[in-house]
Amino acid sequence: MARRPRRWRPDAIYTEVKRTVDRQFLLKPTPEVRNLVGACLARAQAKFPVKIYWAVANINTMQFGRAPMDDHPDALDNMSRFDQLFYGLLSRGINKLWDREGPVWSTRNRSEECIDDKSVEQQLLYALTNPVKDGLCEKVSDWEGLTLFGQLAGGKEERFYHIDWVRWWNEGGKKNKKPLGEYKKWVTVKLSPIPEWERYSEHERQTLLRKRVRQIETECARERKEANRPAMSKSMRARVDPRDRPRNKKESGPQPLCHSSTKESADEYKAGWRDFLERFREASGKFLSGVFDVEFPDGSFRPPLMMVCVADST
User: Fold this and answer.
1) Is the Cβ–Cβ distance between 130 and 58 less than 8 Å?
2) Phi and psi, residue 237, nearest 5°
3) What angle do CA 283, 9, 108 make, to 5 degrees?
4) Domain shared by 90 and 57, yes or no
């Protein structure tokens, strides 16, 4: 089946999930991985600004909530450019950390639009509590991987660092006797409140988030107790091999077209999507046929063209 065409809309919030190759535990929760993910996230956001609402590094998935900064064409382009830079930086960092080669991610990220404020709130809570639901920890605050929960629920801005290799090379590279610690650059991730909670003060948002998360943690603890399936302890998480994978393969369900709190709004979105898809396919067909000035639907991207060199037989 053909891949779903990407579409970015300026007034929309998108939830995204990207899995590691073979679901390997390459995002094992360690201080090094936490800092690496946070630093790559902050660097990508600084280079290609996007609104970030949440970011969670589960043991083998990355989960985001983000949106364009505004309706400027460059802001829409930044959504894709942010992906390219973030996952590129993170892939190189993960391979270096675990002394491995090859791809880190299995496929391109699954991106779906949250079409109402309630669905954004649902996806925020789902992402933050995902390690708890998976039985990887008892509480969100126990997770050593990146969640930015402290920043969202307590106002504690997390700082991450990366090495300024450009400056290091410019000052002599391997001949430089300075310790690498002197080339650290500290960065932070800028988070935006979800629309549903913008009417609250910062303190009220933090209190509400902690309350909602506690409710989910309590429910998950009850379910684990009934199933006699305790959550992993800190020592168990520390013993995880990053090259390992789940014993029982979990089949992925079909990718939803969107996230909605009501069936009516989801049906309305699907009708609009079908219209968009029809216009995109028509424009794509003309473009690949050589009509390069064809107009594509707003927020979509033109298919790549392959340049072919033909040898002169004479």
Assistant:
1) yes
2) -65, -35
3) 75
4) yes
Strand locations in the chain, DSSP E? 13-19, 51-57, 61-67, 110-114, 159-163, 184-188, 258-259
Does 88 share its domain with 122? yes
Task: Pull the structure tokens for residue 85.
Answer: 């830079």
Query: Which stretches of 115-254 are DSSP H helices?
Result: 117-128, 130-133, 149-154, 165-170, 202-226, 234-238
Question: Amino acid identity of 297?
Answer: P
Tokens of 222: 């009850």
**Domain that residue 33 falls in:** 13-261
Cα–Cα distance between 56 and 63 in angstroms, integer? Answer: 5
> Whose CA is closest to 259, among 78, 107, 122, 132?
122
Q: What is the pLDDT of residues 106-152, one digit of tens each?
A: 877 889 999 999 999 999 999 999 999 999 999 999 999 999 999 99
309 within a domain of the structure (yes/no): no
Domain count for the chain, please give it: 2
pTM, whole model, 2 decimals?
0.90
